[in-house]
Every structure is written in structure tokens, then in C-alpha cells.
Amino acid sequence: MEKLKQVFQLQRDGISIREIARRVGISRNSVRKYLSLLAECKGVDDVELASKAYSNDLLELEAERLRQVTIHFSTAGTELSKTGVTRHLLWREYRAEHPDGYSYSRYCYHLKKYLKNRDLSMHLEYTPGDITMIDFAGKKLYYTNLETGELIKCQVFISIFPFSGYIFCQAVHTQQTADFTHLTNSMSKFYGGVSATILCDNMSTAVKRSDRYEPEFTDICLQLSEHYGTTFSATRPYSPRDKAMVERAVNIVYNYIYGPLRNRTFFSLQELNAAMREQLELLNDKPYKNTPYSRRYFFEQQERHLLKPLPALPFLQKKVVRLTVQRNYHVQLTEDHQYYSVPYRYVGKKVKVLYDATTVEIYLDQDRIALHVRNHRNKSYTTLTEHMPPHHQRMHQIRGWTRDDLLEQASRIGCSTHQAASLMMENSIYMEQNYKACFGMLMLQKKYGSDRLEAACQRAIQGSRVNYTMIKNILERGLDKVANMFATPLIIDHDNIRGKEQYL
Predict the structure, then answer these.
(1) How would you write 181-215 as a 3-class SS string?
(2) Which of these, 186, 199, 284, 289, is most buried using a 10 Å CB contact count?
(3) For residues 231 and 33, which has the higher predicted lDDT (pLDDT)?
(4) The Cα angle at residue 158 between residues 231 and 166, in degrees rounded to 5
């Protein structure tokens, strides 16, 4: 329509047909055709002008073609992702169904427009301090082993606050759990706080089972979330646009860190990271285009104060085991044969135990049902009174049957009695029976005295098993008064024995 109007205007200005054709970019015959057909169309609107300039049959044919090809695209548009399917194959199928349809070039033109209109992206607005996006770069960095000359490849971890664009990056050897934990600690320290959410892709270190709506995270992510008071979130599978900012950050790191370091040689991971940190500082201080403000400026002014504070200590990974609660309402850490109590109502349940050098946490599903200070004594029981059933609690209250109380009473009699009591505590899984037997053994002191009980215990602990009946029999038969056959024999001094001076 613009060209038609230009033709009329130039004709009114007295311009020749040859010059009109040159200026408008159409043939002279087309100029003559329009001027003859529309000589009487002065002052009409665009719709009536188009209907006179073009044949209505042509307009209807074009509209019908467009309708047909649009219907075709609705089913064939998804076929391009399949193996062996090309645009030309789809066009041949289209022409077989519509012989008077578009030529191949026009078909490709309309297909491109269709796919472009369907593949829309949305501009996202980010809240300051709300989210941290993390990813590993696809390209590796290297350092040289001084001893062998071997190039050691390194994974590069990258994170970004999308509101300010503030970037962190660091090289590690692998993407495995230990390195991932170290990177999270380093990232949190670098930022001086933690955002409400950490968004990652479906990397195996973080996501156990990917899902569009409810991904299942690994134990290490759950531990990190609890320690730092944050939440891990995963992108939709195969949807890099969900974390477009960190994808862009990867390219920025390529340009401003990989590029400047490309000709330098490093001989350790520490050297490589020190050089990366220097370039990273320059990148974060570099002003955005056409502004005096940098990534660091926006982060310091608008995001840092909104971050959650860091815990007093960095995160330490806890070991995770899945155990069954025994009938004595304890679970056993086989690493050092320690027993820790859980509420008695969970006997027989499968629980998850997280432990490190200082604490032991016991979870049923997602609920923590017990928390203990790690006990480093070998083969010991750590029992909380509130975990016992009511009748066990009453018995302990009445008789003072707690492990510490019984061992303290035994230690007052002697070392052998204390050792015997410790062994008796571990005779079976029935704690009540063990306490009762130990208490009975201590009561033998009233009948036989402390010295005889200590002697009997000294004799008993030399066997393979210690129990109440054995110590009682030793006392009843007076075996505690008989010389111990296992005792070290005395060496009799006589003339045939050489002295130490003979071996100088």
C-alpha cells in the first residue's frame, strides 16, 4: 500500500513513469497498470484501494494457502527434531497434500516465521539477594605437573547474582561431592552471605532424580541447605533459559578470565586459582557499558545487606548411613561400634543417620527424631532417658540404673570391677538385662567385700566372656583366693641365670 501511495504522489508531482519506476522499485508496466486501474480511486480508503489494485481471487488464494500451511505446521513443526527429517522432506509431504501450495522457498519463509513466533522467551525480573545461579563451565582450564609435565585439567565452577551480575568462579579437580562442598563454602565466603535460593542445573552431584516439578536432591544438598539456611532449586530438564544469566556468565568468564590467562603456565591448582581471582576482581570492578557503575557497586549497594548471614563455621560434610532401630531402641554405628538411642516407638523403623566428629543426627523420613553428641569411647551406649519406655524410666529412677552411675560405683571398688562392669553392659541387646546383671554383680560387695569382688573380677576378665553368674561362682567357690594360673610366673634368681651385663 505504501508503494501504491508513492506512485500516486509522484504522478501528481509530474514525475515520469520511467522515474517513478526507478524511485519506487517496480517495473514501468506495473506503474502504468496501477495508474490506469486506479485513476478513479482518489480519496478512497486503503481497503477499497487494495481491492481494486489486486484481484480478489488472488487475495483469497493467498489467504487459503496461508491457512493450509499453518495447519500443516501445527503437526509438522515438531517433526524437525526427529532423526532424518529435513525441511525439504516436510515440503514434499506438504506439496503432495496441496499441489497448488507454496514453492519451497516460500514454504521455508513461512516455516521460519512460524517457529520464531512459537519459540518465545520471557524477560525475567530478579529480586536483589533472592537467588544465586550456579553452573560448571563446559571448557576446562589446566595446570602443569612439575614432576611429570602432565597437563592436569580442572573443572571451573561459576556462580552469579542475576540482579547485580556479581560473579564468582573457582577451579577444582572434579565435580564430585567433596569438591562441590568446598566450592559452596568458598562461594558463600566470597559473597559474605547466602541467598534465599541456589539454582543449579540437573548435575548428578546435586540432583538425584530430575523432574520438571519435584526434583529429588542428593543428601549433600539437603545438608548444605540446613547448614546455610537456604534452599536448592533445579532448572527444568533441557531448559537452559531457566538459568540464562549464569549461561551468559560462563561466556563472560571465557572472555575476561580464560582469554587473558591463555598464554600463562601454572604449576598448581593454587597458582591457577590465584590468577583467576585477580582477573575476577578486574571483571567485577569493570563498569557496565555507558555507565560508571560496576557489578561490585550494585552488589554492595543493593544486595549484600539482604543476604542471610553465614554460620560461625563452614560446612563439614556428614557421613550418611541407613540403619534399622534395634529392639533395645538403639542404632549402631559399625564404624566404632557405638550405640545411640532413639525414641522407643521407632523400634524396627528404617532411619537415616548423619554423623561427623561432633554430632549424630537420626532422621525418620524428613523429621529429626534424635540428636546426640558423638561419643568416642569404643563399644559404648549413649542413651537419653526420654527415649526409654515408661517402665524403663521408672526402673532407672528408682534404682539409679544408668550406665554412668553403675560404672562410677564399679570404679570405686577397683579397676577390674570397672572393666568387668563395662563388658557386662555389652553382653546383649537387652539393656535392661545388662543393667540388672551389672547391678547384681555390684551387690555381691555387701556379702563378700570389696577386695574379694575386685579379685573375682580380675580373674573373670581374663576369660572370653564376663557375666554375673561367673563372678558369683568364683566368689562362692573361693576361687578368688586361689593363685591365678594366668598370672606371670616369678623368675627365680640362681647362679645359672646370666645378668644383663652379659649382653652388652
Answers:
(1) HHHHHHHHHHHCCECCEEEECCCCCCEEECCCCCC
(2) 199
(3) 231
(4) 80
The angle at the Cα of 135, spanning 132 to 138, to the nearest 5 degrees, equals: 155
CA–CA distance, 388 with 346 (Å, rounded to integer): 11
The grid coordinates of residue 386 equal 526420654
Q: Phi then psi for 447, rounded to 5 degrees?
A: -90, -40
Nine-digit cell string for 484: 591365678
Question: How confident is the model over 330-336, as a mean pLDDT?
Answer: 86
Give the span between the Cα atoms of 461 and 421, in whole angstroms. Answer: 10
CA distance 370 to 353: 9
Mean pLDDT of the 423-450 span: 81
- ∠ CA 102-106-110, rounded to 5°: 105
- The C-alpha cell 480478489 sits at 56
The one-character DSSP state at 294 is B
Report the relative pairing of strands 197-200 and 131-136 from DSSP bridges. parallel
Residue 226 is predicted with a pLDDT of 86
The domain limits of the chain are 2-118, 131-306, 322-388, 391-481
Distance CA 346, CA 113 (A): 63
Asked if residues 285 and 310 have their Cβ atoms less than 8 Å apart, the reply is: no
Q: Which three cell numbers stand for residue 224?
A: 548444605
Q: 122 near 239, Cβ under 8 Å?
A: no
% residues pLDDT > 90 (the chain): 29
| The three three-digit cell numbers of residue 156, written as one number | 571451573
488 or 292: whose pLDDT is higher? 292
Please provide residue 121's backbone torsions phi and psi, each rounded to the nearest 5 degrees.
-120, 155
Q: Top-level CATH class of 131-306?
A: alpha beta
Q: How many C-beta atoms surround the C-beta of residue 113 within 10 A?
A: 11
Q: How far apart are CA 69 and CA 110, in angstroms?
A: 8
CA atoms within 13 A on the CB side of 327: 6
Q: Distance between CA 37 and CA 28 in Å, rounded?
A: 14
In sequence order, which residues have a C-beta less than 8 Å from that of residue 97 and are 6 or more positions away?
A: 72
pLDDT of 59 above 60: no
Which amino acid is it at 489?
A: P
CA dist., res. 156 & res. 277, Å (int): 12
DSSP 257: I
